[in-house]
Amino acid sequence: MMSRILIHITRAALIVSIPVLLWLAVSHLSQSLIFPDTRFALEKDDKVKIGMGGVEQRFRARENGLTKIDILFGGSKVKDGGDLSIALRDERCETILTERKEFVTSINSGDTTALSFAAIPDSSGKNFCLTIHFEPKGESEATVFVVENTIPEEKISLRISMKDRPGQSLAFRPFYGSTSLEQNFSELNRRISHYKPWFLKHHFLSACFIFGSGASILFLILAIFPRKCLTHDSNGDTTRRSS
Question: Which fold has domain 35-177?
Fold first, then answer.
């Protein structure tokens, strides 16, 4: 009798834990969701040396939740090493909001280098300044790629080695995220919908997600409670009474 009670308690605990664990998993996924602004080109166009004065790229954030910036460095000769500093500053390029600073002996030119930071909740419409400085040791030198500025209203200005470069911008890309579960999945739904047929877009896609989650929970419940348990062991109880 006691063992049967323990079995029922264990099964009930498992059933209660299923939606809790599902919610925790969804919340963790939401917090890790960030979305790139693909209008910002990451292309290997003109390669420019980072000299005295470094790089100053002023830009305007399009959305709230600015949380990461990818930068495309050129093939750099940094075998002797050097101090690399990447910082996000205010619109005047003065106050440092966040910074990545390290001594490097190599810089990845085949992929982007990321400056990641806690999401800025009210970044939409605000101007920022992305700065890059490299202090070489020996004969080391670092380079960045610059591209044509196709959105000057958001890529406000570029200055390298204390020289303005009108009509050009750094090869960089901002990423946006949110602490809101609803906003993150709404944005994910919107982006996925661009590549789906009509019956898998917007509300239809949300309905598919809800149905799939519900079906998964039901499957787990049925797995925990086999069919013979759901019949309440009626045959066994009747047999014991008759004896």
Answer: Jelly Rolls (2.60.120)
